[in-house]
Amino acid sequence: MERMKKRDHKGEGGKATPSVLRVERRKQAFSVFGGAVEQAGDHESALALAQLLTPDPGLARALTHGFHSYAGRMHPFTARTAIARFSQPGQDVLDPFCGSGTVLVEAMAAGRKAAGSDASPLAVIIAQVRSTTLGPEGRARLVESARQIAEEAAERARKRQRPDIPQWAAREKDRFFPHVALELYGLRALIGETKEDDVGRALRAGLSSILVKFMRGSEEAEARRIGRGVPSHFFASRAEELARGLEALERRTPEGTLPPRIRVADARDLSPLAAAGFDLILSSPPYAGTYDYAEHHDVRFLWLGLPRANLDRVQVGARDEGLGSAAQRWLHDRRRWLSEMARVARRGAAVILQVGDGVVAGAPEDAAQAVEDEARRLGLVPVARVSQARPPHDYRLRQIFEGRPRREHIVLLRKES
Ligand SMILES: C[S@@+](CC[C@H](N)C(=O)[O-])C[C@H]1O[C@@H](n2cnc3c(N)ncnc32)[C@H](O)[C@@H]1O
User: Fold this and answer.
1) Is the pLDDT of residue 226 over 90?
2) Are residues 367 and 408 located together in one domain of the fold?
């Protein structure tokens, strides 16, 4: 930011130019995130971006958004408002770091042709489940199967019947209290007997959605309130919540809208996608050296029997050991995924990225500045940005950012026309 201000004084500011964005600091009230927002670049666009940071808390669990927690999830309001403001019905919207699918659900509900991918097979399953509406019969089958499975699993747990313990489960005693683990194995075994169709996939994702809640260290576990039958009951109510969300999504989605195309893919190589196919790219890529999505979801990969080796290999930004090689890789990776976005964006398309300051080679990085500098070289012109302070919760990040603000940004780029 300092660097941008200095350039302004040299007379380059005043309005957005491809090379420099002017920064304004405005105090605004925010219902969820809170804090002042810095705006930079084209005034109108920056105002529109600032709206994305004023979420309506009522939307947090709207449609299927409350079904499965996910680290780094975009606020549904941010996705909804950006799609409405920066694309038209029927246009093509892409999220190549789709995570749990927030952008895809909102794009579908707004009648856009949505496509998304993620390097994590878990993310892809969650996103698919959240956007496959199943129809009235499928939803009824989901709720009924979950109810029957939950009843059976709870009954077995209350009778202290021991399910078969899978071989991989040896280390799970560290994660769960024994009676909780036994009940969850029971649930898992019964879910495993169901067909692997859309409903079966939703049941599997339902199991994934409840695991963390019942781990040692969670509020429930610490309060020792996990009675026998509680996890099963919770599983059944998750399925009901999902069915309600899917029904709301079906009602909201304009007739004739195709479901999102979602697949496992590395955002650094979107090669099956043709060039110039998207009118809006809306995404929240990982932050540098902040989250390891493979490690973070380890328990879910294990319980769902999903392979995580590929995600471990290709995920970007997972680690920063303060080593030059990790930093080089981060920079190289960012150039690759930005260049793929530039390739698949249509002329004049908006590319909107929610990015957060991260850690590169052991030091804080201004993520917005770095993205804009790189994007410009790839034919994506920086138009505007908004930034807001987000002090880190984590001790390591607090040490690294000591004395410097850590911010999240929403950056608007335009593909050159
Ligand atoms: C901040 S999260 C996205 C969250 C998403 N917007 C949501 O609302 O759930 C970043 C995602 O990037 C994914 N990711 C990391 N490296 C990737 C890569 N090389 N290609 C594609 N996805 C990747 C992670 O698995 C994670 O799901």
Assistant:
1) no
2) yes
Q: Is 200 found in the same domain as 106?
A: no
d(CA 319, CA 396): 13
Instruction: Count how many domains the chain has.
Output: 2
Q: Is residue 260 part of a domain?
A: no
For ligand 1, atom 5, name the residue with the nearest CA: 99
> Domain for residue 259, yes or no?
no
Q: How many angstroms does the Cα of residue 118 sit away from the middle of ligand 1? A: 6
Please check whether residue 95 is in contact with residue 104, taking contact to mean a CB–CB distance below 8 angstroms: yes
Domain of residue 151: give its range: 135-252
Residue nearest ligand 1's atom 13 by CA:
97
C-alpha count within 13 angstroms, C-beta hemisphere, residue 263: 10
Q: Are residues 142 and 55 in the same domain?
A: no
Task: Compute the mean pLDDT over every residue in the chain, rounded to the nearest whole number.
Answer: 89
DSSP summary character for residue 44 = H
Token output for 156: 């077995």
Where residue 338 sits, what CATH number does that domain have? Answer: 3.40.50.150
- The answer to whether the CB of 23 falls within 8 A of the CB of 4 is yes
Q: What is the pLDDT of residue 17?
A: 34
Amino acid at 92: D
Encode pLDDT of 55-92 as tens digits: 888 899 999 999 999 999 999 999 999 999 999 999 99
Rounded distance from Cα 170 to ligand 1 centre (Å) = 29
Ligand 1: which residues within 6 Å by Cβ?
70, 72-74, 97, 99-100, 102, 118-120, 123, 266-268, 284, 286, 293, 314-316
Same domain, 220 and 349: no
What tokens does 28 get? Answer: 């605004």
Going from the Cα of 212 to the center of ligand 1, the distance in angstroms, rounded, reads: 19
Provide the whole-model pTM. 0.91
Residue with tokens 């403001």: 85
Domain for residue 257, yes or no?
no
* Helical (H) or strand (E) element with 180: helix 178-192
Residues 275 and 373 in one domain: yes
Is residue 57 in a domain?
A: yes
